[in-house]
# Entry
Amino acid sequence: MRCRSTLDTHVYAGWRRRFRLRSDFSMLAYKRRLPHLHPEGCYLFLTWRLWGSLPVRMQSPGDRTPGHSFAAIDRVADRLTSGPLWLQDHRIAAPVSHSISMGASERRFYDLCAWVVMPNHVHLLILPLVPVPSLMRWLKGSTARSANRILDRIGQRFWQDESFDHYLRGSHQLERTAAYIERNPLSAGLVRSAEQWPRSSAGWQAKLPAPHKAQKCRNSSRRFS
# Structure
């Protein structure tokens, strides 16, 4: 599978200067503690968590595949009742939700497909229009500063450094991943229907009028080849 490039060369060069990226930076891959592969023009499933939100024993994947490790950790995170749960506070979750929407509608960092803000983590399905490290730096950095001001914990870590990411290989994965994201509160036993969770694309679409439509990527195969 080869995904089409949606990023104009001159636009990318401008973003590289603005965010002070290295001249040899590649849109395709970067590596910290985890490998990150970001083929251009591909839809991307992203997850990031509050700092210290997982038990230490769950942070090592062992011999599991990355996908199996993610699923196991996500199930645990959904049911945690201890540790940081700052995102269940509306004062914190509302600005995070707004930033996710603004990243698509105003900043034009990505096309927004589906999203959910859970009590201790965030799921996001997007088509990136700028380098992924740049958009994540903005999204996590701006929301962390806002949250820490509200919580009176300036200068402390808010988000876990690493994010889980997975690019989608076909239109069937797009629909399945969007459904997984929007049904996450339902699977965690927090609501009786996905639309009842206010901090998600499903919940926002249930409002009249919807603050931001996040359906343009749904049921689309035009960006897959």
Remarks:
- Residues 5-35, 219-225 have pLDDT under 50 and may be disordered.
- Strands lie at 29-31, 35-37, 44-49, 110-117, 121-128, 164-167.
- DSSP finds seven helices and six strands in the chain.
